[in-house]
Amino acid sequence: MLVKLWLIRHAKSDWDSGAARDFDRPLNGRGERDGPRMAAWLAGQDRPATWIWTSDAVRALSTARFVAAGFAAAGPRVVEEHRLYNAPPETILDVIRATPPDVTAVAVVAHNPGMTQILNLLAGETVTVNLPTFGVARLDLPGDWPDAAFGTATVDLTMRPKALPDAGGDSLD
Q1: Cys-Cys crosslink for 48: which of 11, 73, 74, 94, Cβ 3.0 to 4.6 Å?
Q2: For 141, phi and psi rounded to 5 degrees?
Q3: Residues sharing a CB contact under 8 Å with residue 50, sequence separation 6 or more, in sequence order
Q4: Is the whole-model pTM more than 0.70?
Q5: For the domain 2-163, what is the CATH code?
Q6: pLDDT-derived band of residue 3, with 50, 70 and 90 as boundaries?
Q7: Cross-strand pairs, 3
Q8: How far apart (Å, rounded) are the C-alpha atoms in residues 146 and 21?
């Protein structure tokens, strides 16, 4: 069996928001503009996520709402997971392995550097040196969620806001 994993870095955040803590930073104007565009793109993709793990940081939750809107036809459940806040790849992998067995497509919305690192580690190669804000990578993983391991995934597709058809760019780089 192959399961689908959507790795999604949060949208562009506002460093000048006045938030007292990094955790509380909201999306900036570009992040808010990219959200509906990426949601529309996600809506056109096959194998939408029915389960969305998200960091509980403000910027990740805001991004997860756009992701859920994109996958709305699949009726995804959004689950906040504090361990995803600035998590290393090993922690992200632990969260992925905890996905319920009846879920065949899951999304993870979290932060760099962990998201770039887990993408490259799962694929067993350097897919990108930096998963950009609201960058998306969809992977095929063999087996079930508890079997997820570094070096076993195949990258199926990538996208970022600057590469959407209305922006005229390329994939992740």
Answers
A1: 74
A2: -120, 130
A3: 71, 74, 75, 76, 77, 103, 104, 105, 106
A4: yes
A5: 3.40.50.1240
A6: very high
A7: 141
A8: 34
